UniProtKB/TrEMBL annotation:
Pfam families, per the entry: EAL, GGDEF, PAS_4
Keywords assigned: Membrane, Transmembrane, Transmembrane helix
Organism expressing this protein natively: Streptomyces globosus
UniProt cross-references to Gene3D superfamilies, sorted A to Z: 3.30.70.270, EAL domain, PAS domain
Stored PANTHER family: BIOFILM ARCHITECTURE MAINTENANCE PROTEIN MBAA (PTHR44757:SF2), DIGUANYLATE CYCLASE DGCP (PTHR44757)
Membrane-spanning parts: 47-68, 80-97, 109-128, 140-161, 168-191, 211-231, 243-265, 313-335, 347-367
Listed name of the protein: Phosphodiesterase
Coiled-coil stretches noted in the UniProt entry, renumbered to this chain: none
């Protein structure tokens, strides 16, 4: 379909459609760019759209070149075909505008409106020419639609242009627009528009509106082309691909308009000719631009400033625009002069305004350049001051690696003058061991895209002026094919990091590797071994008796002993082995394997090393002028194929605990049975925890009977564990399970000698059982007192339990007050005292309890080595003989003498005496003859539940073998309740012998 201006035809016969605005329009898309990441539809879909666009446009061009086969079809395709293409562009722009939310959205709406006006104009033109078969009247609605196309498109282009930030920038934008538009107007007026204006006026004399219509379309074309060129040089960094596509559409449309307005083609133009293919392709490009353009993400990451830097000619085109415009304007004037025609007033006026605009623009640019020069000088001075005053060293190396600039800070950092370093090869200053790594990193950095990796960081050793190597950290940037290095001395930081790393991996007291470093070395030894090599071994070492050193001569002495033990351990292992301190008095050693030996030889070698360590660590220590002895228990575990570091160290730990349970001061090799035993103990401990929470514990009481009268003087509380099968386990049985479940294998031997009902503080479960026993015994005793059975209850407690600071202070006193137990109703049976227990604190604690009416019994007297010391220092009311003495008092004359002597001591000190484990009538008679006042055992009664106990208390007495007799020793308390004379045992008078 034809387009154009009045320059080719009279207004009556010309389709007056705005060429540039009609057949195409600008396009833009947020996030688009000329290069970069493909559209979200994918690169394949974009290529398919481009191929489809080429095929459709090419098909239209072929059809137009062949005349479409008939004049009617040519008119349909030239009118309604162009209308359909413009309508497609309008719908595409509108749909895209609804999907975005940015400042470009109004531009796309304007483009949609412009294309819609073009579609309406073509449709009206087709209605007259195809449907009605008559010429289009002038003016008509088609002319109005065509004239409404260009203004919205021009405004849309201005929206998409990069907005100036200053008033001078806005003035330059307006001047640039006029320079381009005025130059094109001058040239167009000289070539065709002046003739078109005269022709329009001569065709219809004095018809100013017709002349205006004839000139409006080309003038709008010139304005639109001016905006296109301005946008091309001032377009935003984003959406560049869509903008370029729009510029291509505009260029194609303007070219078609220019050909149409030429006298050669415009005179014989008819709808459907080849010229319509240009307008058709422009509309399709407009429809394609927002959806098929390749896009980059917005922001700095999507920009490629280095592209402009690589094309200096393209970058200088905006600066040449004013001169090119003046040249075009000059050509328009010269054309009139050379042709011999009179220079038109429009050309003269336009040329003068173009020259004036050029002068104004150059003046603005001159002022701007002066301001920029001053600003640049200020910034240059500023940055020169920063560089020269910076503590960091700034160096510039050319592509060959030679230093071309070094900042003055080099003298203070490297101890070398900057002038001395200039011209030096950078590689000669880097430590040879670091050079390969640095070269590799630099090559990798230079090969990486600058947009993805603008900088990198390199740390290496740099040679100083004094010859030593400094640790230097450098930030590296690209610079004209070379490098800019911003370097700083980090030697102190590296040293501090090394110290911190050493502190994190070594024990602060002994400086041996700690558990974390030891575990890593074990892991390295396991992963680095050859397949089947089981030579590596781990030794776990525990110092037996170390706690006594801390408790007797102080923690400072204990630390000195640990340091000496660590030194001995370090000196005793081989060069390739590792000695470590795991914590407290626990050490470890990693013995490297020897693949050249068989298993037996390797085990023998490791056993020899372990025995040597044990002997060395067991030698006397001289600490603070005092000779101290400790022993060493060592567990050994060998590495097996596929074993993990955790399992290997666990095996050594199990072997070490087995060595401690087996008597200490020995070496034990790990065996798989140890793990099975540990699992079994853990399961038993789990059952015990469940029993404690589920109320499976029962409290029994065994009567304490007067050996003279048979009266029940007190009851001894004893805990029992009722298993799922109904079996009651004694304290010695379930306490052993509890302590082993808590990871204390040595409790097995101790529990074998533990009297029934005795509980120390222990750890974990034993302490909970002891707490439960005390609370339950006090509660039931209070209930019996309320029922009229006022016999005291005896509860065994360890000394460390009484001094336990982990529990709430005054917990025993609070328990007595809560249940209202009267004075004298509770007897605390103090288990044998460890000499490491602070007797001063224990004496104060027992004295406070006695003031509340609590009686104190010394339990297990006659066994161990601490009984006499406790009897001498502690306020004791009752002395209880150990069951081991009672068991042999009949058969052994030696034990009879010992027992008689202990009872004489108790009697002389005014104490009550009680024997535990009295199971035979002969024992009752023997003990009574020696002066023992009370007995507890199967000779009278076993442990009773609450119901049977109350029945026994109602009865009140048990039969005494041999009847009531006079005691062999006078001065003891008479039978009956366990009454005790008050006062200190030091004040008790001793009767004559």
């Amino acid at each position: 379909m034809d387009q154009g201006s009045a320059a080719a035809q009279p207004p009556e016969t010309t389709k007056g459609r705005a060429g540039t605005g009609l057949r195409g329009g600008p396009v833009n898309a947020p996030g688009a760019a000329a290069v970069g990441r493909p559209h979200s539809c994918g690169g394949g879909r974009s290529l398919a759209m481009q191929l489809l666009l080429a095929v459709v446009s090419g098909g239209y061009a072929v059809g137009a070149a062949l005349g479409w086969g008939s004049q009617d079809l040519a008119e349909i395709m030239g009118d309604f075909g162009l209308s359909a293409a413009a309508l497609l562009a309008a719908v595409s722009c509108y749909a895209y505008a609804r999907t975005i939310d940015s400042r470009e959205r109004p531009a796309w709406l304007l483009f949609a409106f412009s294309s819609l006006m073009g579609a309406c104009g073509n449709a009206v033109w087709g209605w007259y020419e195809v449907v009605l078969g008559e010429p289009v009247p002038k003016p008509s609605l088609a002319d109005f639609a065509f004239l409404c196309f260009a203004p919205p498109a021009i405004v849309g282009l201005l929206v998409l242009a990069k907005r100036p930030v200053t008033r001078a920038g806005w003035v330059c934008l307006a001047l640039d627009s006029w320079l381009i538009g005025g130059s094109l107007l001058t040239l167009s007026w000289s070539l065709a528009l002046a003739n078109a204006a005269r022709t329009a006026q001569e065709g219809v004399a004095g018809s100013v509106p017709r002349a205006a219509f004839s000139l409006a379309y080309p003038l709008l074309d010139i304005a639109l082309v001016s905006m296109v060129l301005v946008l091309h040089f001032r377009r935003s960094e984003v959406n560049r691909s869509a903008v370029n596509t729009a510029i291509a559409a505009l260029a194609l449309t303007v070219l078609s308009d220019a050909l149409f307005t030429s006298p050669l083609l415009g005179a014989g133009y008819q709808s459907g000719q080849l010229l319509d293919a240009g307008w058709f392709a422009g509309s399709l490009l407009l429809a394609y631009a927002p959806w098929g353009a390749r896009r980059l993400p917005s922001g700095p990451a999507g920009r490629h400033p280095d592209r402009q830097a690589g094309r200096p000619i393209t970058g200088s085109l905006p600066a040449l625009t004013p001169y090119l415009a003046a040249a075009v304007c000059t050509l328009g004037i010269l054309y009139n002069v050379v042709d011999g025609r009179k220079v038109d007033r429009v050309v003269v006026f336009t040329g003068c305004t173009v020259v004036l605009a050029l002068v104004i623009r150059q003046g603005i640019m001159l002022l701007d350049n002066i301001a920029l020069t001053q600003e640049l000088a200020q910034k240059e001075n500023h940055f020169r001051s920063l560089v020269q005053g910076s503590s960091d060293v700034i160096m510039i190396a050319d592509p060959a690696g030679t230093l071309r600039y070094v900042s003055p800070a080099a003298a203070g950092v490297y101890g070398r003058e900057a002038e001395e370093l200039v011209g030096t090869e950078l590689a000669s200053l880097i430590h040879p061991h670091d050079l390969g790594r640095v070269v590799h990193e630099v090559r990798r950095f230079l090969a990486a895209p600058p947009a993805e990796e603008p900088t990198t960081r390199i740390e290496c050793r740099f040679k100083s002026g004094g010859g030593e190597w400094l640790n230097v950290e450098s930030t590296v940037n690209r610079h004209q094919g070379g490098l800019i290095l911003n370097s700083r001395d980090v030697t102190e930081r590296v040293r501090l990091q090394a110290q911190l790393q050493h502190s994190a991996e070594h024990d602060p007291l002994t400086d041996l590797p700690n558990r974390a470093l030891f575990t890593r070395r074990v892991r390295r030894a396991l992963t680095g071994r050859r397949a089947g090599d089981r030579g590596a071994a781990v030794l776990f070492i525990d110092l037996d008796g170390f706690k006594a050193v801390n408790d007797t001569i102080g923690h400072q002495a204990g630390d000195e002993l640990l340091v000496e033990a660590a030194r001995r351990l370090q000196d005793s292992v081989r060069a390739g082995d590792t000695a470590a301190r795991l914590g407290g008095d626990e050490f470890a050693a990693l013995i490297a394997g020897d693949a050249g030996r068989d298993r037996g030889a390797r085990e023998h070698q490791v056993r020899e090393i372990a025995d040597r360590l044990r002997a060395t660590l067991s030698q006397p220590y001289r600490v603070g002028g005092t000779e101290v002895r400790v022993a060493a228990s060592i567990g050994v575990a060998f590495a097996e194929p596929g074993i993990t570091p955790t399992d290997l160290m666990r095996n050594a730990d199990l072997a070490m605990y087995r060595a401690k349970a087996g008597g200490k001061d020995r070496v034990e090799l790990y065996a798989p049975q140890m793990q099975a035993d540990a699992v079994r103990r853990a399961e038993a401990a789990g059952r015990l925890r469940t029993a404690l929470r589920g109320g499976e514990f029962a409290l029994l009481h065994q009567p304490v009977v007067s050996l003279e009268t048979g009266e029940v003087s007190a009851v001894a509380a004893q805990a029992r564990w009722r298993s799922g099968q109904g079996i009651l386990f004694t304290p010695a049985e379930f306490l052993r399970v509890a302590e082993q479940g808590e990871g204390v294998p040595s409790a097995e031997a101790a529990a074998a000698h533990q009297p029934e009902g005795a509980f120390g503080t222990g750890r974990g479960r034993p302490a909970e059982i002891a707490r439960w026993l005390l609370e339950q015994a006090v509660r039931e005793a209070a209930d019996r007192h309320a029922a009229g059975h006022g016999v005291p209850v005896c509860v065994r407690m360890g000394a460390d339990r009484l001094l336990d600071r982990a529990g709430p202070p005054g917990s025993l006193e609070a328990l007595l007050r809560r249940h209202g137990l009267p004075p004298g109703a509770l007897v605390v049976e103090l288990a044998e005292c460890d000499p490491r227990v602070p007797f001063d604190e224990l004496e104060r604690r027992l004295a406070a309890l006695r003031r509340l009416g609590v009686l104190v019994a010394l339990d297990g007297f006659g066994s161990g080595y601490a009984g006499i010391g406790a009897l001498r220092r502690l306020p004791v009311d009752i002395l209880k003989l150990d069951p081991a003495l009672v068991a042999g008092v009949v058969e052994s004359s030696r034990l009879r003498k010992i027992t008689a002597g202990l009872l004489r001591i108790a009697n002389d000190l005014g104490m009550q005496s009680a024997a535990e484990g009295v199971d035979l009538p002969e024992q009752v008679l023997a003990l009574r003859s020696m002066g023992c006042t009370h007995g507890q055992g199967l000779a009278f009664s076993g442990p009773l539940d609450e119901y049977r106990l109350r029945r026994a208390l109602v009865r009140g007495t048990f039969p005494v073998p041999g009847g009531a007799v006079e005691p062999a020793l006078a001065g003891g308390a008479s039978g009956g309740a366990m009454a005790v004379r008050r006062g200190s045992h030091n004040e008790t008078p001793v009767p004559p012998t």
